[in-house]
Amino acid sequence: MRMRAAVSDFSPMKQLVLDYPEDELLLVYDRDFIYGSSFYLVLTADAKERHLKPVVALGVEVALEREPSEVFAAQKTSEPQPWISLGSEQEIEEESVTDSRPRLKYRISRVRREFGAPIFFSDRNAMETKDGFIECTPYQDKNFSLKQMERHTGVQTIPNLKSSSTQTQWTYPRSMCTQYEPREFSEEKKENCLQSEKLKNFVNSVASRFEIAIQQNEIMDVFFDDWKALSEEDSGYGRKADPHLKEYQSFTDLHFSKEKTISNINWHPTINGVIAVAVTERLSFEDRINGSTKLLLNPSLILFWSFSDPINPQLLLECPDDVFSFEFCPSDPNIIVGGCMNGQVVLWDISTHVEQLQGTRTSGGKNIAANTNALDKVPTLNGISLLTVTRTEKPTCGVVDIHSFSLFHSDKVSRMGVPMENKNGICVQIVTCAPDCCVMFWDIRAPRVLQTMADQRKQKVEEKPLENPHGVPNTFKHLDLTWKPLIRVSLPKIDTSGEYSPLKISLRDNTCDNHTGSNADRAHLNAERSEVAPEYALLRVPSAKQLKPLEDICTRLYAGTEDGELVYTDWKLEKDNDSGRLFSAKPSHRFIIHDGQVNTVRRSPFFKDIILTVGGWTFAIWKEGVTNGPIIQSSCSQKKCTVGYWSQSRPAVLFIGKEDGNIDVWDLLEKTHEPSQTQNITATQITCIKPWIVSSKQHLLAVSDHLGTLHILEIPWTLRSPSSNEKLSMSKYFEKEVDRLVYFEKRREMRAKEKKDYEAEELRKKTYIEMIIN
Fold first, then answer.
1. I need a labelling partner for 573 at 20 to 30 A (CA). Which of 46, 144, 287, 615 fits?
2. Over 50: is that where the pLDDT of 238 sits?
3. pLDDT surpasses 60 at 767
4. What SS3 state is found at 514?
């Protein structure tokens, strides 16, 4: 009863057991079920005595009749009853499966020589044998869609099952508040405490220390965590460790750049704070054809912006058609060359406007921005565009890329395509490419004509000033109607007929791509960094002692095509032994990596043999001389990549522009699988990126978008200051990637050889088996 409590069979008699007067109870096992239970309990002392001492009468023991009221009968345990058949087992036997006959035995054997032999399948006519094919009809066959009317099934009853669950009641959270009231002394206790001598002595003893502590808290916060503040100080926005690009200035013009896009940008090599942008019509090819008459009335322009006047352009350069690319001459920044959409090459001489660009004009400089007539005061300069002789072979193929005048450092190219020494060190040659499958070399010098002394004296006497009604300088008047390319290099396809269509090119010795910073600042940067980028070192004309030997000149170039291909070829013309004519050799290598047209082919300013290519949804980094493929290739991004550029101060950093207006900053020493940071610059496509070094403490990044707005961003300290031995670390990293490519190529060759050997062995086994069978 103590262990089972209310479940016990004796629990109804619990009180009677507790009231029993003696210490021992009599519990009897009723084996014969006289009272219908397994046990009975004697509840009185007299009944216990009578039960233990039976009465003897006539020599026979007579058992006393037990009173039912004095005995508690426990609950009777049920017993299993015998099975009584009602015929259900016959139904179960009828539904069970029994063997009506002995089971059949089959033995399958095969010739031993056929074990492990190869299996050969052959074609046969399905109509020659019966049931040689199975027809799979494309519609439902009614012969196999019969409805079953009657079915024999067996049913057996089981107890009813019920699935249930329980959970505590959930109460929704609610806002609660509590408030307590402090226990205070009574007014009498307060007065006694304030007047006590103990309190006065305590205040007098600690007053001096308390005053010193208050003074220290006024001077400095003792609870300020210096270590935590040290890390947070450089991590905030605008701090030294802030990695974000900050907006420095922006330029847009509602008149000249309205409904136009920016196709190319370039910083002025020598004048600080001056940047030139080429604006083109934001039209498709079909819209250009339909609106060709209207486009003739709107001249194409190159705008010169200055930080001193962010509202009005300082100079306008007119050209016959939209300019896709333009460059400054490294040896003479007043000379500018541009490539137009119609295939023309245009030359400008801005020497008469240099003082205006330098900010020396004094008339109305402050009020031009607020006056609508200020547009008439912006000087406009026309260029020398040679209409017939500078066109490409395809009128719809514009000049999309122009490389610097200082093409070969201080060397030049002869008319036979042979590199020659340029003793004067003046940059006079350019290289252009267009989708007409040609790369052209040009020379802006006047052609040499043999004259006698008498002819020269006669020419001096009869010499008259050239007429120039449009205000075009006479710098390149000698090229009018006579300018032709020195050499024309075609790009024939390697495996098929036809030619490649180049969009961007990169030459090994073309290190005057873009010059950043003033002369004094560049000299300061050169003194700071011994491993300076090539762009910084080409600002002055090299002397004759610094000229390279001719045999060291590399005549190979990389060309990115409109089909996403990267072509590596030699632009030096070869001579036919039979006819003696010069022709372009086929490219040595062609790589298909990008899934869209290549928009960037640019060499690293720190490594002349490292090239960055951008096209489609990926970018790749190549090493010249490695023909196995790119050493680094990015994964496909969600948005198309539109432009890319190397950092001018950090060898491991590059900038990638996207079509959604974001710029991905890649730090190859930090991450190579994803960009270090992504920052949104504009709401539309980014068209150009060009860095600029103002000083060692200020680096700028020019970013143009599809809507014609030019954004000037300030590069943070973390992206402009190289780490210790960063160039050496990147050099080792590139070498490891080259070793990885070589190892991968060896493994591929080894696997191909193993596959070839395996196929030869299988063919030998097959031939041997056929010989045995025959």
1. 615
2. no
3. yes
4. coil
User: What pLDDT digit, counting tens, does each position of 437-481 carry?
Assistant: 888 888 877 766 544 445 555 555 454 444 554 555 667 777 766
Whose tokens are 């690009």? That residue is 245
| Contact in structure between 372 and 254 (CB atoms under 8 Å) | no
One domain for residues 577 and 674: no
Q: What is the mean pLDDT of residues 739-768?
A: 91
**Same-domain check for residues 638 and 688:** yes
What is the chain's mean pLDDT, rounded?
77
* Alpha carbons 38 and 293: distance in angstroms, whole number: 121
- Which range of residues forms the domain containing residue 26? 13-51
Classify residue 706: in a domain, yes or no: yes
Provide the pLDDT confidence category of residue 633 given band limits of 50, 70 and 90: very high
Residue 179 belongs to some domain of the structure: no
DSSP conformational letter for 118: P
Percentage of the chain surpassing pLDDT 90? 23
Q: Report the alpha-carbon distance of residue 335 to residue 305 in Å, rounded.
A: 17
Q: Could you read off the pLDDT of 47-56 as tens digits, one per residue? A: 888 888 764 4
Amino acid 774 reads N
CA distance 103 to 111: 27
Do 544 and 683 have their domain in common? no
The rounded distance, in Å, linking the Cα atoms of 484 and 509 is 23
C-alpha dihedral over 497, 503, 506, 510, to 10 degrees? 120
Q: Is residue 730 part of a domain?
A: yes
Residues 573, 623 within the same domain: no
Sign of CA dihedral 212, 215, 220, 221: positive
DSSP run (H or E) holding 459: helix 453-462
What does the radius of gyration of the chain's CA atoms come to, in whole angstroms? 50
Spatial contact of 658 and 637, defined as CB atoms under 8 Å apart: yes
Print burial letters for 567-582: b (CB count within 10 Å at least 16), e (below 16): bbbbbbbeeeeeeeeb
**Tokens 């005549």 -> residue:** 555
pTM of the entire predicted model:
0.61
Is 698 in the same domain as 569? Answer: no
Cβ-based neighbours of 574, under 8 Å, separated by 6 or more: 582, 583, 584, 585
Q: Quote the number of domains for the chain.
A: 3
Same domain? 578 vs 661: no
Query: Rounded to whole angstroms, how far apart are CA atoms 284 and 274?
Result: 31
- With cut-offs at 50, 70 and 90, classify the pLDDT of residue 385: low
Q: Among 703, 718, 734, where does a domain finish? A: 734
Residue 336 and residue 269 in contact, taking contact as beta carbons nearer than 8 Å: no
Task: List, for residues 339-369, the tens digit of each pLDDT value.
Answer: 888 888 888 888 888 888 887 443 333 333 3
Q: Are 338 and 263 in contact (CB under 8 A)?
A: no
Three-state SS at 770: helix
Strand 71-73 to 698-705 pairing? unpaired
∠ at Cα 133 (130, 135), nearest 5°?
A: 125
H or E element in which residue 93 lies: helix 88-95
* E strand spans, 510-668: 556-561, 565-570, 574-575, 582-583, 589-592, 598-603, 610-615, 618-623, 632-633, 641-646, 653-658, 662-667
| Residue 369 included in any domain | no
DSSP 3-state of 553: coil
Question: Where a domain ends, among 719, 734, 749?
Answer: 734
Residues 686 and 649 in one domain: yes
Does one domain contain both 573 and 685? no
What does the angle CA 440 – CA 442 – CA 448 come to, to the nearest 5 degrees? 140
- 641: domain CATH number is 2.130.10.10
